[in-house]
Amino acid sequence: MMNVFFKGESVISMTYFIRLLAAFLAATLLSASAAAGEGLFSGFKTGGDSSPWHISADSLTYHEGQGCYSASGDVEIQGHGKRLLADFVRFCPETMEASAKGGAFLESGQDVLSADSIDLNLAGRTGTARRGEVFFHESHFHIAADQIVKTGENSYLMENAGLSTCDGENPAWKITCRSLDVTIEGYGFVKGAAFRIKGVPVLYVPFFVFPAKTKRATGLLPPAVGHSDRMGFEHTQPFFWVLGENRDATFHIRHTGERGEMFGAEYRHVFDGRSKFAARLDVLSDRKADTGSAESAENWGYDDDDFDRPNQDRYWLRAKHDQALPGGVFMKLDVDVVSDQDYLHEFKTGYHGHGDTQAYFSERFGRHIDDYNDSERISRIAFDRVWPRFGLSAEARAYDDVIQRRRSGLDETLFKLPGIRFFAVRRPLWNLPVYGETDAEFAHFYRSEGMSGTRADASARLSLPARFWDILNVEASLGLRQTVWNMENHTREGVDRGEGEFYRTVADAALHVSSELFADWALGPEGASRLTHRMAPDVSWEYAPELSQDRYPFFDSSDRVDAKNGLSYSLTHLFMLGAEKKPRDPGAAPEWETRQIGRVKMSQTWRADDAVCFSTDAESGYEECGERGFSPISLEMSAGPFQNFSATADLTWSMDGHFFTQNFGVSYTRPGWLEISAERRYSRNWSETIFSKARFQLTDRISVFARYERNLHTDENIDSGAGFGYKAQCWSVDLGYRKQGDDRRFDFKVDLAGFSDF
């Protein structure tokens, strides 16, 4: 056996040959298997790297007449974490042709290519690998073809190819095709494609075209299929359209057997790191309506309101936009327009449903949309400018009451146009120990039919904070608020109160006393861990006089001021467990890892007068929200003594010995084996529900899951379901059943490893 060692450029032609060979194979494998992710051997380069290469062969020859190098007999070329094995390797620098024959085996890390032979034309960047097989370890893709031909710089042809993420000679599933002609960043043309289960073809497609993009690609997305009592059979097919590097759109058709066809669209545009826009629109011409009859109400209505839903034209438009503007101004746009009060109940879950939209907007924009059961939808556009000490904002807002719009026939939509707000943050006044802050707003409210007018609202607060004995924090504050309305017409409770100006002046006072105490206990040998107890008592008194406000206009909650005259206290205990960690650098100070293992908070209020508070539900606009004396005691508790276990509880207990509310919850997770949680929620004379869900991994392959929610007050099931999952080496399946109220749903999901789920 002959061993040869090369370093740097001592034999430039052979080193160049090895690097170009590996680079070509990397490009071939990457492009021929775009679905498998990044290619093999991307670390090979054609110059600038002086790392050594090791070559061993029975013989190494230079053919002077041909100008070619050849190595034969158990050839092994190794370096840079790569290894090439073959019976024979040949390279001709003048023609830039290379070949490896006799069980060519190329390895990079855990990725492997094997082929009977490889012929390359490095000048033309073409080549052929015969009877090649590729394995990508990270994605676990197996790709095999009778012939892989690189026909151009970015074009490839594969004959009799097969792809799977399953191991073994007879994989559980495999995708095969007679030929695949693909151009990277272009399209692929497939002939004779078949999806096979254990070698048996179950789906055949004679010809299809797909986008071969390494970036985002236009094309069909995985479909969604389901069945429920209200919808019947459902099939949703989305189509993704790339409009540019920073813009794209999705269109979908949702077929429902009972309700008809729904058409949806989504548009996304990212302008820069701070500026972005997203909008979604869904439209349905519903075959069913809640006309008020007992049958239609039961089948197509919802019983959380007393209103019918006779319309069949149904839609939901929602959008958000963040935009950084010149001068430090920032714009935010929120749009939320829905056809009827039942739409978001109907499409609370699923593709483009309320939950999906809520999660998307919260993640992308950090802002929520109104709850699915809120019949008043708010749309707004706001411009904000914030300085270190001041802030200025201007907004336009629309309050769309869906029920009122559908039923009255009058356009009484309330617009806040404009609303201008100025505020000054809390800061010391001159050199005094007094702090001041202000907040002022001017708003014009408009209805095409109904009450309209303007409102100017300004408030100021002076605070005097002090600290005694380095342990007690005391703060006294006084506030003054002045509100002026100028009404074009003013109607309250059916009484026309005319036009003109209305004035309101309110003063309030507050006293706040708080402290914070700590205690540490060393635990374990040499104090390797410690327990910290933090106790925070808090006492506050607030006063605001009770005013007769029936004569004042009402546009939003800022038009009402709640009366206050009471003393509140709270006592919070926090328990933290810290453990010493080994420092990363020898000789460095030890690091501590701390987690909260317990929290207890008790609070209560004593009212000097009967409290009357503003309420949108009360007929007069007010309701009694507390009697003179002590309020119920509120107790909040949470515990996490173990890494994967947590328990929570919150209670309110009245002074006459009754619980108003009792809520308890526990959860335990053992990663890869068990997830379980349970809750009990109780409100006196109102509701009592229990909820639990669990998922058990019975074996390495089989798991079961279940959920159950019941209203014990009405003795009715709210939500229940169960199912099982089976996970093999390269595929998995979930089958589940769910019943919510009168609606029953079956879910079936198949996941092929390496592909999207169906």
How would you sum up this structure, described in words?
This protein is mainly beta and 758 residues long. A hairpin with a 4-residue loop joins strand 3 and strand 4. Among the domains are: 2-213, Lipopolysaccharide (LPS) transport protein A like domain (lipopolysaccharide transport protein A fold, Sandwich); 216-323 and 331-374, no CATH class; 650-752. It has 5 helices and 46 strands. It has a 26-stranded antiparallel β-barrel. It starts with a strand and ends in a 6-residue tail after the last strand. The longest helix has 21 residues, at 12-32. 7% of the residues lie in helices and 61% in strands.
Give the terminus-to-terminus CA distance. Answer: 55 Å
Residue runs with pLDDT of under 50 for 5 or more positions: 1-48, 616-623
Shape: globular
CATH domain class of the domain at 2-213? Mainly Beta
Tell me the radius of gyration: 36 Å
Portion of residues in beta strands equals: over 45%
DSSP summary: helix tally:
5
Q: Given the helix and strand composition, which structural class is it? A: mainly beta
CATH homologous superfamily heading of the domain at 2-213: Lipopolysaccharide (LPS) transport protein A like domain
| Relative helix content | under 10%
CATH topology of the domain at 2-213: lipopolysaccharide transport protein A fold
Global mean pLDDT: 82
Total E-strand runs: 46
> Judging by the overall fold, what is the CATH architecture of the domain at 2-213?
Sandwich
Largest sheet: 26 strands, antiparallel, barrel
Keywords: Signal
GO cellular component, one term: cell outer membrane
Signal peptide: 1-36
Protein name: Putative LPS-assembly protein LptD
